[in-house]
Design brief:
- This protein is mostly helical.
- 66% of the residues lie in helices and 8% in strands.
- Helix 1 packs across helix 5.
Length: 144
């Protein structure tokens, strides 16, 4: 059931997307949103990718105006990555479109089932956030 729900969610989110960003690029944007100022090496580790691949991904996001590269104030050799205002606006718009799609589905569910779903999703989010924090790199001070 979980796989089916995840696949249906992907379909719904795909319908909501006019995204100029690929799934991999979206993943980077979400990481940057939650880890403001992360460096390239740490981002690559978090994505289980190589620094050159991650750098190319960030190059494309920077060219689209979604990401800013900033020299670290403590080490001029280190580049930190941040979401630009355009990147933040893109994520906000994407979330609004996704929410609209989800609300259309939820409107077809009985109220008691919506409450049960909410309770289950709250527990899932708590457990997932705990696992992600546990699996996250201990430090993002490596240079890229």
């Amino acid at each position: 059931m979980t796989s089916t729900a995840a696949e249906l969610l992907e379909v719904l989110w795909g319908r909501a997307s006019t995204a100029p960003a690929s799934a991999s690029q979206l993943r980077v944007l979400l990481m940057l949103e939650h880890h403001e100022g992360i460096n390239l090496g740490t981002l690559a580790d978090s994505l289980a990718s190589t620094p050159p691949s991650t750098s190319r991904l960030c190059d494309r996001l920077q060219a689209a105006g979604f990401v800013d590269r900033v020299v670290s104030p403590t080490d001029r050799r280190e580049v930190r990555l941040r979401l630009s205002s355009r990147g933040r606006a893109f994520l906000a718009d994407l979330r609004a479109r996704r929410q609209k799609e989800l609300q259309a589905v939820l409107a077809h569910m009985p109220a008691a089932k919506r409450v049960a779903l909410l309770e289950g999703l709250e527990a899932f989010c708590t457990a997932a956030a705990t696992r992600i924090r546990h699996d996250a790199p201990a430090s993002d001070t490596r240079t890229a």
